[in-house]
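Sample entry copied in:
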Amino acid sequence: MSGGGDGPEFDCSGYDVECLKAVGIISPYVDYTAAGLFDLFKDNQKNFYKRSYLAFWMNQSGHVIHTEILIDGYHTIGASGGGRPKFDLYKTIIKDRILRSFYPENMSRVQFEAYESDFMPTIIKKQLYELQADYQNAFIKIRPIKYRGDNFVVCDPFGDEG
């Protein structure tokens, strides 16, 4: 479940992206990480909480690390539990006899990267991300807005004046 995951299991930005696509805020042909969504909407930051706003949590360095959607002035809904992929797709394929059979013999990492957008790596990656989501108990949940702490900002993806 990398940034922008869009399978049956979502990462945080994947869930937000699907919701934003559903209401026509972003194109159905794009994908964003949490940081990418923040960059898209950072000019619409608000100092109050309202349903449909996006909440973005930052780490101590100020980098966006998580996003959720406000369902009212006190709660958010979002995906969590998955985190970043904990595997190296190249190493996973090289170690597996069946997966390796789809690629040239003795393929280097550089050669593999040329294949990464092809059909098989895409399917393999999707399946591995879904297995990881299940293993890490990724799920959609509703929580109080401050459950992750106070280091967050809210943005209006609709660009309303208030």
Residues 119-135 form the longest helix (17 residues). Residues 1-8 have pLDDT under 50 and may be disordered. The chain has two domains: 1-84+138-162, 87-135. The CA atoms of residues 80 and 138 lie 5 Å apart.
